Amino acid sequence: MTSALPLVIAVDGPSGVGKGVVTRWLATRTGWHRLDSGALYRILALAAVHAGIPLDAHERVAALASDLQIQFIGETEADEAILVGGANWTHEIRAETTGNLASQIATAPVVRAALLQRQRDFRTAPGLIADGRDMGTVVFTDATLKIFLDASPEARAERRHRQLSRKGASVNLDDLFVEVRARDERDRKRTVAPLVAAPDAVVIDTTRMAVPEVLENIEKLLDSRQLDR
Ligand code: DC
Fold first, then answer.
1. pLDDT digit string (tens) for 159-196?
2. Which of 52, 159, 172, 176 is most exposed by smallest CB count within 10 Å?
3. What's the pLDDT tens digit per position in 36-54?
C-alpha cells in the first residue's frame, strides 16, 4: 500500500557540511517545503536562555516548546528571517554560540520528544526537504530518499569560517575547528538519536567536492529515483 503522506527527502549530516545549501537547492528544484530542524533546536535553546531557564533543566526547556510562535521567512540564506513571537531572532539564531547551546539541549530525550511532532507537522503537500541530524533515522524514517552528507572537520571549519566571514562576523578558524570537533563529539555520541547515517541513506563525502559537484551527485539521485519535476 502506498502512503498518502507527502514525500520526504531527508538530508542529515554534521555541522558545517553544507546541508543548508543542498536543502535550499533541493527545495527550489522540487518546489517542496523545507524544514530546518536545527533552527528549531536553536530557537528553543535561545528561548530558554531568554527565560532564564538553565539548559540542563531539560523538563523546563522542553515545556517551552509548545508555546513558541515561529515564522520562517525567505528562501535564500541572504533573505532569511526567523521570527519568534513576532520578534526577529535571525542574527542570534545563526550565531555559532547558539549552535553550541542547541547541541547541549539536543542531548535530552525529553527535549527531542517535545520537538518531534512540530517537525513532522512540516510534512505538507507537495513534499518536504528535511535538514538535520536524525531526519532519516528518527523523524522521517519512511523518507523516499535519505542523503547523509559528510566531510572532514577541517573542511567543515573552513566552510563555516567562509560563511560567517561573508556575513561580516569575525571568527577565528582555529576556534571554529575546536567548536566543530566538540559539537561533532556531542552530536555523534549522545545516546538518543545520535548523528549517524541511516542504513538506507546514500552517503556523500563532500570533503574534496565543491558545491556544484555535490549538487550534480544529488541531481543524479533525483533522476534515478524519478523525483525530479
Ligand atoms: O544544524 P544546526 O547546526 O543548526 O543544529 C544545531 C544543533 O542542534 C546541532 O549541533 C544538534 C542539534 N540538532 C539535533 O540534535 N537534531 C537535529 N535534527 C537538528 C539539530
1. 989 888 887 878 899 999 998 999 888 888 888 888 99
2. 52
3. 999 999 999 999 999 999 9
Ligand 1: distance of its center to the CA of 40 in Å?
Answer: 8
CA-nearest residue for atom 1, ligand 1, is: 38
Asked whether the whole model's pTM tops 0.85, one would answer yes
Which residues have C-beta atoms less than 6 Å from ligand 1? 15, 37-39, 41-42, 99, 102-103, 106, 132-134, 183, 187
Give distance in angstroms: CA of 38 to centre of ligand 1.
4
Architecture of the domain made up of 7-224? 3-Layer(aba) Sandwich (3.40)
Cα of 151 to ligand 1 centre, how many Å? 16
Distance 126 CA to ligand 1 centre (A): 25
Residue with cell 539548559: 55
For 90-94, the CB contacts below 8 A with 24+ separation are 92/46, 93/39, 93/42, 93/43, 93/46, 94/42, 94/167
Which residue, judged by its Cα, is nearest atom 5 of ligand 1? 38
Alpha carbon nearest to ligand 1 atom 13, residue? 38
| Inter-residue contact 33 to 128 (CB < 8 Å) | yes
d(CA 210, CA 207): 8
Cell numbers that stand for 113 in this block: 520528544
